[in-house]
Amino acid sequence: MSRALPFFRYHPDPVATGAFKVSRETCGCCGQARGRVYTGGLYSRHEVPGPICPWCIADGTAAERFDGEFVDAYGLDGVSRDVLREVTRRTPAFSAWQDPRWLVHCHDAAAFRGEVGYTELTEHPEALDQLRTDLRLGGGWHDADRLDEFLRSLGHDASAMLFRCTVCGSHLAYVDAS
Question: What SS3 state is found at 176?
Fold first, then answer.
Protein backbone atom coordinates (compact mmCIF):
# COMPACT_ATOMS: atom_id res chain seq x y z
CA MET A 1 0.00 0.00 0.00
CA SER A 2 1.23 3.41 -0.90
CA ARG A 3 -0.01 5.28 2.17
CA ALA A 4 -2.08 5.01 5.33
CA LEU A 5 -5.81 4.62 4.93
CA PRO A 6 -7.93 7.73 5.40
CA PHE A 7 -9.73 8.07 8.73
CA PHE A 8 -13.51 7.66 8.83
CA ARG A 9 -15.01 9.26 11.93
CA TYR A 10 -18.16 7.15 11.78
CA HIS A 11 -16.46 3.89 10.76
CA PRO A 12 -13.04 4.08 12.41
CA ASP A 13 -11.80 0.54 11.65
CA PRO A 14 -13.16 -0.42 8.22
CA VAL A 15 -10.46 -3.04 7.68
CA ALA A 16 -11.47 -4.97 10.82
CA THR A 17 -15.17 -4.78 9.89
CA GLY A 18 -14.49 -6.05 6.37
CA ALA A 19 -15.46 -2.85 4.55
CA PHE A 20 -12.08 -2.81 2.75
CA LYS A 21 -9.95 -5.62 1.44
CA VAL A 22 -6.43 -5.84 0.06
CA SER A 23 -6.53 -5.72 -3.74
CA ARG A 24 -4.45 -4.85 -6.78
CA GLU A 25 -7.55 -3.70 -8.65
CA THR A 26 -7.78 -0.15 -9.91
CA CYS A 27 -10.40 2.16 -8.48
CA GLY A 28 -13.45 2.65 -10.71
CA CYS A 29 -13.45 6.32 -9.73
CA CYS A 30 -9.84 7.57 -9.78
CA GLY A 31 -8.28 4.80 -11.87
CA GLN A 32 -5.47 4.16 -9.39
CA ALA A 33 -4.46 0.87 -7.80
CA ARG A 34 -3.93 1.86 -4.17
CA GLY A 35 -3.79 -1.54 -2.48
CA ARG A 36 -7.28 -1.64 -0.96
CA VAL A 37 -10.81 -1.51 -2.31
CA TYR A 38 -14.25 -1.16 -0.81
CA THR A 39 -16.20 -4.42 -0.46
CA GLY A 40 -19.65 -2.81 -0.29
CA GLY A 41 -21.89 -1.13 -2.78
CA LEU A 42 -22.77 2.38 -3.81
CA TYR A 43 -26.45 3.26 -4.11
CA SER A 44 -26.50 5.00 -7.48
CA ARG A 45 -28.48 4.95 -10.69
CA HIS A 46 -25.15 5.17 -12.54
CA GLU A 47 -22.97 2.20 -13.33
CA VAL A 48 -19.74 2.15 -11.35
CA PRO A 49 -17.02 0.67 -13.59
CA GLY A 50 -15.17 -1.17 -10.83
CA PRO A 51 -14.38 -1.24 -7.13
CA ILE A 52 -13.85 2.03 -5.27
CA CYS A 53 -10.79 2.90 -3.22
CA PRO A 54 -11.00 4.23 0.36
CA TRP A 55 -9.63 7.64 -0.68
CA CYS A 56 -12.42 8.27 -3.21
CA ILE A 57 -14.94 7.47 -0.47
CA ALA A 58 -13.25 9.64 2.17
CA ASP A 59 -12.93 12.76 0.04
CA GLY A 60 -16.43 12.41 -1.44
CA THR A 61 -15.21 12.01 -5.03
CA ALA A 62 -17.00 8.69 -5.63
CA ALA A 63 -20.35 9.86 -4.24
CA GLU A 64 -20.11 13.06 -6.27
CA ARG A 65 -19.00 11.42 -9.52
CA PHE A 66 -21.65 8.69 -9.43
CA ASP A 67 -24.31 10.75 -7.60
CA GLY A 68 -24.67 8.05 -4.99
CA GLU A 69 -24.59 7.09 -1.35
CA PHE A 70 -22.72 4.37 0.51
CA VAL A 71 -25.00 4.39 3.55
CA ASP A 72 -28.78 4.67 3.61
CA ALA A 73 -30.08 7.57 5.70
CA TYR A 74 -32.40 5.18 7.62
CA GLY A 75 -31.96 5.80 11.34
CA LEU A 76 -30.08 9.08 10.97
CA ASP A 77 -32.94 11.24 12.21
CA GLY A 78 -31.99 14.34 14.17
CA VAL A 79 -28.42 14.77 12.91
CA SER A 80 -27.20 17.88 11.12
CA ARG A 81 -27.15 18.08 7.34
CA ASP A 82 -23.33 17.94 7.41
CA VAL A 83 -23.31 14.76 9.51
CA LEU A 84 -25.95 13.18 7.29
CA ARG A 85 -23.86 13.97 4.22
CA GLU A 86 -20.65 12.65 5.81
CA VAL A 87 -22.24 9.35 6.84
CA THR A 88 -24.16 8.70 3.62
CA ARG A 89 -21.62 10.00 1.09
CA ARG A 90 -18.19 9.78 2.75
CA THR A 91 -18.36 6.75 5.05
CA PRO A 92 -18.07 3.09 4.04
CA ALA A 93 -21.13 1.01 4.87
CA PHE A 94 -21.12 -2.30 6.71
CA SER A 95 -22.65 -5.61 5.72
CA ALA A 96 -25.74 -6.87 7.51
CA TRP A 97 -28.30 -9.61 7.01
CA GLN A 98 -31.13 -7.07 7.11
CA ASP A 99 -31.03 -3.52 5.79
CA PRO A 100 -28.29 -1.85 7.82
CA ARG A 101 -29.17 1.20 9.85
CA TRP A 102 -26.91 3.77 11.42
CA LEU A 103 -27.51 4.60 15.07
CA VAL A 104 -27.62 8.10 16.53
CA HIS A 105 -26.80 9.26 20.06
CA CYS A 106 -26.33 12.76 21.53
CA HIS A 107 -27.63 14.27 18.26
CA ASP A 108 -24.70 12.84 16.28
CA ALA A 109 -24.23 9.70 14.24
CA ALA A 110 -22.53 7.00 16.26
CA ALA A 111 -19.34 5.27 15.10
CA PHE A 112 -19.79 1.72 13.83
CA ARG A 113 -17.52 -0.64 15.80
CA GLY A 114 -18.47 -3.97 14.27
CA GLU A 115 -20.71 -7.01 14.33
CA VAL A 116 -20.54 -8.75 17.70
CA GLY A 117 -21.91 -11.69 19.61
CA TYR A 118 -23.06 -11.88 23.21
CA THR A 119 -19.57 -12.26 24.69
CA GLU A 120 -18.32 -9.05 23.07
CA LEU A 121 -21.56 -7.28 23.93
CA THR A 122 -21.14 -8.04 27.65
CA GLU A 123 -17.99 -5.87 27.55
CA HIS A 124 -20.36 -2.93 26.96
CA PRO A 125 -23.16 -3.32 29.56
CA GLU A 126 -24.85 -0.06 28.55
CA ALA A 127 -25.30 -1.43 25.01
CA LEU A 128 -26.67 -4.70 26.37
CA ASP A 129 -29.12 -2.86 28.63
CA GLN A 130 -30.22 -0.59 25.77
CA LEU A 131 -30.69 -3.64 23.54
CA ARG A 132 -32.80 -5.39 26.20
CA THR A 133 -35.01 -2.30 26.50
CA ASP A 134 -35.37 -1.92 22.72
CA LEU A 135 -36.29 -5.59 22.29
CA ARG A 136 -38.83 -5.47 25.13
CA LEU A 137 -40.50 -2.33 23.81
CA GLY A 138 -40.29 -2.80 20.06
CA GLY A 139 -39.68 -6.50 19.68
CA GLY A 140 -42.42 -7.92 21.84
CA TRP A 141 -40.06 -9.79 24.17
CA HIS A 142 -42.19 -9.86 27.32
CA ASP A 143 -40.63 -12.96 28.88
CA ALA A 144 -37.32 -11.85 30.44
CA ASP A 145 -35.90 -15.41 30.51
CA ARG A 146 -36.59 -15.96 26.81
CA LEU A 147 -35.10 -12.56 26.02
CA ASP A 148 -31.92 -13.36 27.95
CA GLU A 149 -31.71 -16.74 26.20
CA PHE A 150 -31.99 -14.98 22.83
CA LEU A 151 -29.34 -12.44 23.76
CA ARG A 152 -26.95 -15.19 24.93
CA SER A 153 -27.36 -16.81 21.49
CA LEU A 154 -26.10 -13.69 19.67
CA GLY A 155 -23.23 -14.62 17.41
CA HIS A 156 -25.00 -17.58 15.79
CA ASP A 157 -28.16 -16.89 13.72
CA ALA A 158 -28.29 -13.33 14.97
CA SER A 159 -25.71 -10.79 16.02
CA ALA A 160 -25.53 -7.26 17.34
CA MET A 161 -24.27 -4.27 15.41
CA LEU A 162 -22.19 -2.32 17.92
CA PHE A 163 -21.77 1.46 17.80
CA ARG A 164 -20.08 4.02 20.04
CA CYS A 165 -21.36 7.55 20.59
CA THR A 166 -18.87 10.08 19.20
CA VAL A 167 -19.95 12.62 21.83
CA CYS A 168 -20.29 10.81 25.18
CA GLY A 169 -18.60 7.47 24.43
CA SER A 170 -21.60 5.28 25.30
CA HIS A 171 -21.98 2.04 23.39
CA LEU A 172 -25.26 1.09 21.73
CA ALA A 173 -26.39 -1.74 19.50
CA TYR A 174 -29.18 -3.26 17.48
CA VAL A 175 -29.91 -6.88 16.56
CA ASP A 176 -29.42 -8.16 13.04
CA ALA A 177 -30.73 -11.64 12.22
CA SER A 178 -30.62 -13.94 9.22
Answer: strand
What sign has the CA pseudo-torsion 67, 72, 77, 83?
Answer: negative
Residues 80-116 have pLDDT tens digits of 999 999 999 999 999 888 888 999 999 999 999 999 9
All structural domains of the chain with their residue ranges: 1-95, 99-178
C-alpha distances out from residue 99 to 58, 112, 170, Å? 22, 15, 23
pTM over 0.85: yes
Residue 50 corresponds to which amino acid?
G
Torsion, CA 131, CA 43, CA 88, CA 129, rounded to 10? 0
* Contact of 17 with 114, CB cutoff 8 Å: yes
